[in-house]
Amino acid sequence: QGDRVTVYTLAEREPVPLSILHHPYCVTFSFYAGEGGEEVVLCDASLLEEQLREGAATVGVNRHGEVCQIAKLGGVPVDAVVLLNCVQVALGKVKEISAFVAKRLEEDARRRDKGGVIASLLSSENDRVS
């Protein structure tokens, strides 16, 4: 009918797992003016380090190396080469995070699929008569 929602408890129904196919992750870089004019860059700074930074940039990348966004809102100017290095570091971090999330999702799927029931239901194999 479309006007009613039924919420089931965990005892009544097994939750449907979240499907993540193409997901970017964001990595934040903090910029500081070092001694002698050199730039100091920190990846994912702590709260205290964030309060002391002079600029920041957030790079959103997916595991395939596609840059989805770069946000640099004000702060100290940053050289383009430094920003490109930040993108490369972000890609490495995103590959680590993606592998971690994929492993945990796989473990969760195995935990949910006790006895292989779900795998057999989702199989694309059909009984064929020759």
Rg is 23 Å
Poorly predicted tracts of residues: none
- Let me know the largest β-sheet: 4 strands, antiparallel
Mean pLDDT: 86
Spell the H/E element sequence.
Answer: EEHEEHH
The helix count comes to 3
The geometry reads as elongated
Give the strand tally.
4
Supply the helix-strand structural class: alpha+beta
Report the portion of residues in β strands: 15-25%
Gap between N and C termini: 43 Å
Helix content: 25-40%
Strand order of the largest sheet: 2-1-3-4
Task: Walk me through the structure.
With about 130 residues, the protein is α+β, with helices and mostly antiparallel strands. The protein has a domain at about 25-115. It is built from three helices and four strands. It has helices spanning about 45-50, 80-110, 115-120; strands at about 25-35, 40-45, 55-60, 65-70. Strands 2-1-3-4 form a four-stranded antiparallel beta sheet. The longest helix is centred in the C-terminal third of the chain and has 33 residues, at about 80-110. It starts with about 25 loop residues before the first strand and ends in a 9-residue tail after the last helix. Belongs to the RNase PH family. InterPro entries: ExoRNase_PH_dom2 (IPR015847), ExoRNase_PH_dom2_sf (IPR036345), Exosome_comp_Rrp42_subfam (IPR050590), PNPase/RNase_PH_dom_sf (IPR027408). This is Exosome complex component RRP45.
Give a concise summary:
This protein is of the alpha+beta class.
